[in-house]
Amino acid sequence: MSSGDTWDDPARVQRYRDRVFGERESLRAALADASVHQQRVLTELLDFNAGTEYGRAHSFGSIRSLDDFRKAVPINDYAALAPWIDRMAAGESNLLSADDPAVYFTSSGTTGDHKKIPVTPRFMQRTFFPFYYAAWAPLVEHFPDVLDRPDAVLNLKHDPRPAPPTTASGHPHVGASQVDFGSKFGEPLSAEPGTFAHWGTLPVPVEQNDHLEKTYLRLRLAVESDVRCVIGINPAMVAAVPYQLNLWWPRLVKEIRDGTLGGVPYGSPNPERAAALERLAEHFGTVRPSHVWPRMRALFCWTTGMATLYMPRLLAEFGPGVAGLPAPVAASEGPVGVAFDRHGSAGSLVVTASVYEFLDAEEDVRPDSTTLTFDELEPGRDYHVIFSHIGGLYRYAVGDVVRVVDRVGGVPRVEYGGRSTRSDAVGERLRDTHVIRALAATARATGLDVRNAACRVEQADAAAAHYEFAVAAPGGWSEQETEHFGALLDTAIGHEAPTYQAARTTGLLGPVVLRRLDSDAFLRDWHTGVASGIRPTQVKDRLFRQDLALWQRLTGTAQVGKGGQA
């Protein structure tokens, strides 16, 4: 890789800044004519793909308006489009898109199955890259020193794969963070901050699926650098860093002192740095990221969903004044919202990327559901996201729920709320957002520190079903505090979800049962998941955990107390 392609080159950095700010300004300017841009996106995707098999089957050539589009095309989920996608992955052309996919993004659904998301060159140019560059603007604008050196950023999601798995047609089937957009799509500026750090491509041999060891090796190298920013997207990856520093501390310090990396000689021994780190640990009695990287500036990841519970404490672990910048509201299938400023959670709709439709989150998503357009959304409400774009996904229900925070330039600004999957044992119809808001409200009301949480429905033989919660909390809660938290949580869930309250009132559901775990329980569980061979980007916070084996793995041998006792 030439110097002109790295963060060492000031000219390259300036070109990158110009591109990032230019794309942001274009997207921000588009908000003034959002309806015009939505129609343009629809017209372009219809014209471009009218001759495809899917386009012919749904009369794309005669569609002129969104109403026509709604009548001609049902709302789809991945399962509905999977037969088309499987044929594309096997080598057939002109099915969903006139543009053959160059790569397939992998995406883990709620069942853990790996989807094959077709990614076409036209999609990348028209839909993906404008939003992708713009997403970095708040970081680059307000924390410019993160671009001073290649190793100023610890990019946890960067995981290049030299020999990726492929579809039957020979196209790579990998995570978005494993694709070199420069070589694959002709975008030399697309490499993210931190990807040119000396740990970006590990300099020592490591098994491809040994993700935990790869995580350690990158951290080992980063501990010797003046890191200013951590990029994770998946906040569980960032939350694991303080835990990893303490878990691996003796090994980290020894390897720094000895000049080894994974037991292999690497670089020069650095006894001075090792001694300084040992002094910090001895002085503070623990190790925090703020001790290791005192000039840390920002964390870039999703700040909502389950991260709502632990983000304030996580930021404090990295240092006073460290900013939490929200990663864009997006999925492997396409973008939804991107932050144009330093708002802590929300981003504006990317009106030039996809045609967006929405459905109230309390409703079921059906092929014939009546949808809303962006100008019909209300602040403070939750919605299912449905989008259509030129890459071949039409009226696609991505499975995410967003919450409308406010409007900027007349266009909704949204934050990620959680998955649309419901827990519905007896008609309670609970969503992530219901329970997360209830947990946060209960933590505020009690003043108790909740690090993370999960729940499942438990059905005893002779008793009503009830929700069992596993809550990670530091220190000791008194019996009275624990009972109070459980009772308030039960009430708060009913406030967020009237269907839950109805089930409690009629006796179909019993009261919440609380299982209190130590503060590191979810971090240990995250490590166990990664150690099993799952890429860290895909080991995410999951609220509803009905799989008994996984629940037992998380909770271990903790004792259960009923009625809010532990």
Would you give an account of this structure?
Helix content is 37%, strand content 18%. The chain has 566 residues and is α/β, with parallel strands linked by helices. Strands 10-11-12-16-15-14-13 form a 7-stranded antiparallel sheet. A 4-stranded parallel sheet has the order 3-5-8-9, with helices on one face. The protein has a 3-stranded mixed sheet with strand order 2-1-4. α15 packs across α16 and α16 (479-496) packs across α17 (498-505). The longest helix has 21 residues, at 10-30. The model is unreliable at 557-566 (pLDDT under 50).
Summarize the structure.
The protein is α/β, with parallel strands linked by helices.
Helix and strand arrangement:
Layout: H1 10-30, H2 34-49, H3 53-57, H4 66-72, H5 78-89, E1 103-108, E2 114-119, H6 121-134, H7 137-142, E3 153-155, E4 173-174, H8 181-185, H9 211-222, E5 229-233, H10 235-247, H11 249-258, E6 260-261, E7 264-265, H12 271-284, H13 289-292, E8 298-301, H14 307-318, E9 323-326, E10 329-331, E11 334-338, E12 347-349, E13 355-360, E14 382-389, E15 393-408, E16 411-419, H15 432-446, E17 452-458, E18 466-472, H16 479-496, H17 498-505, E19 513-517, H18 521-531, H19 548-555
Helix pairs in contact: 1-6, 10-14, 11-12, 15-16, 16-17
User: What Rg is obtained from the alpha carbons, in whole angstroms?
Assistant: 24 Å
Taken from the alpha-carbon principal axes, the silhouette is globular
Distance between the termini: 57 Å
Please report the total strand number as a whole number: 19
Structural class: alpha/beta
Main β sheet profile: 7 strands, antiparallel
Strand content: 15-25%
Helix content: 25-40%
